[in-house]
Amino acid sequence: MRLAELKLQNFRNFAAQKLELRPRLNFFVGANGQGKTNLLEAIYLLSRGESFRPAEREHLIRNNSEIQQSRLIAALDGELGRHLLTAQIHESRLLVELDGKRTGFSTLASQVPVILFSPESLAAIKDGPDSRRRLIDEGLLTRGRVGAQLLRDYSRTLRARNALLKQLMDGDQRAGTRDSLASLTSIFLVLGAHLASERTQLLRELLPFWRAAFASITQREPESLALRYEVSGQESLEWTESQIFDVMSQRQKELAAREVAAGSSLVGPHKHDLKFLVAENDSRFFASQGQQRALILAFKIAQINLHRTTVGRYPILLLDDVMSELDADKRSRLMQFLEGISAQVLLSATDLTWSPEFAPQENAVFSVNAGEVRCVESRDRLDHLRSTTLGLRADVN
Ligand SMILES: Nc1ncnc2c1ncn2[C@@H]1O[C@H](COP(=O)(O)OP(=O)(O)OP(=O)(O)O)[C@@H](O)[C@H]1O
Ligand SMILES: [Mg+2]
pTM to 2 decimals? Predict the structure, then answer.
């Protein structure tokens, strides 16, 4: 599906904005704080039901507006014609409808798949394991309903199990609570092993794509790159689901008393880790920041290529402010990749000094200024954007 039109009403710093998107590269250029990330956030929200940055739902509604409600409307062109995807945000509720029918996010994430590149995602190696797990789960979410539902079921079971453990921690002595915990633990371990096994399968499929993408970004012979998925600190990329289940069950028994003392689940995919190894070393400790970004950039590109291979189409790509995170070589390799595929790309930046010339029919540059987006059509204006850096300035338009 391609985004043909987007309307934002009362969303973040947008009062009422309508824009027509082009099928290929859409650049959003503007100084800091003008609304570029807000715009990409709106699209992400329509696909995933949550923002990629910490935000209460109320914060998404435009401040000081009389109507305490936001609306997002996207017209999407798919193989079977046009679809309308709408979201309404009111207080802490978000209601999303696809063609007038209420739709859950386990369906949407794969029907309108988006892949986000952000400075935060590029920092996943040095950040905590949470952001690395998110990298894999993004692949599960976009690839089909099964993965999305599994993630949802696991996180619901985890929440319910944690609530019971917390009750026991707070002194609940009832036998019923212990019984409920025992039966929930059985379900939890089955779901957890299933989720971990879906993750390892995805990682095994990604591995050759990742190696190839890294070689093409860095223009070097592929080094010995490996992915390591850890269950309780043990390498488990090649394990079967039942091996994962056995190790998790055993560990859970060992930690049963500690789980009650902590009031939370200490075993399961929410604790597993993903490591990116270069020449057998954990890149977290051995690779430079730039190399770490290249490894993640390659991982994202691998995800896009694998998605295309398995699903037959490209997801919509959202790149928020990533060009500023990359050196000139990687910027131009990334641009070459984006130009070489047929995906729709929405990319935000404070300048276009790195951008190549491109055909105007399929691509467009938009300026973003204080919550207003305008298509930049004039040749002089485009040349000006290509020669100026707008970061920390506010004179776009
Ligand atoms: N609920 C809201 N109502 C009104 N304005 C908001 C709301 N939430 C955020 N903003 C405003 O949106 C602006 C930030 O927008 P955004 O993060 O999209 O900027 P940006 O163009 O991506 O900037 P940068 O280049 O620094 O990343 C800020 O000025 C902020 O005050
Ligand atoms: Mg931004």
Answer: 0.93
